[in-house]
Amino acid sequence: MLNKTNIFLLSLAFLNVLSNLNAAETNIPNPPSSFTAQDHPWDHGEKIDLNWIHSLNNQTSVQYYSIFQSTNSGSFVFVRNVDPEISSYTVEKLDRQKEYIFKVVSVGEDGVESSPVVTLSAISPTREWFDGRRFSLFIITMIFCGSVVYWILRARGGEPIKIRKIAGLEAVDEAVGRATEMGQPILFIPGIQDMNEIQTIAGITILSRVAKVAAEYDAKVEVPTSRSLVMTAARETVQASFLTAGRPESYNQDLIYYVTDEQFGYVAYVQGMMVREKPAACFYMGAFFAESLILAETGNTIGAIQVAGTAMPAQLPFFVAACDYTLIGEEFFAASAYLSGEPDQLGSLKGQDIGKVIVFIGIVIGAGLLTLGTLLGTSSSLGLTLISAAEYLKSVILT
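User: That's the sequence. What structure does it adopt?
Assistant: Structure tokens below.
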């Protein structure tokens, strides 16, 4: 049976519950207003821009806004939370074949959410003719291509294009001449990759020059290959070089042959042949891997003049240590322009150098901006601006 005390306590509990409910209702933040979604301009068709007006809330502060997305046939999926100072957001990585509906809610203290605000109609992203994010890349491409075309036209006009001497290519005549005097063959290794490797193509280009000089000196050029297609290309190249030199009868296709695709089986054969025949000049031009040191050390042991060229950074130290001359990186790829002297190739090489200078300047500017921004710190608005500029330069312009 209830007495006065129990009735009083029940009344207090009921009033407390009502007070908590009123407090919870009071702490619910107001939703944002004027929520709109529109296609992002000048993109690849994968972005939607969301805009809203901040929640006018006098009862509690908004901690953040939560954004959700949904297709017409699906439930809402969380996208991300944004700071309360932000009134717009770009949703990325959307499918332009689908239509999307978006909603946003204000989240207050203790995770209390407002009523959701939903876009009035579904929207799908549209692909534009031009991606605005790549405009800086377009400008850089125009500068690079313009410099190449400009220098090609100047070279065609008869202006001499000066290229730094490449010692390894200048030594071709010396190496072939020594082999001729000693009556020993010339060994040319065009790497161990197939013709789809750009370094193999560059090596075949240098083989053309070596074969032409060998034909003029009446020297023997032996080219063992590890790919059948490389063998065919090498045969055609050497035959054309002998024909250009006026010695087509001296061409012997049996000196250009296929050994095996297996890496160390091929190297074992070449190493044994080098020890037996002791070529006076060895050329290693192409893509090499672990076999580079084996070949170079064997050639050094038999006392041959060795000229190597590759763009494989891990193998360059072995060639530099064991060979007389080494074409490092882009020297190897510039060999065709250097050897041919054709205006188009020389102008192209000069134009690419201008592009490299521009990239170098960009790297220096980016490093300077990042250094200054780090010194000033992210707490400073200027420091944060400098770091953002350096990041934009790295990820958008130089990438």
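Residues 8 and 14 are 10 Å apart (CA to CA).
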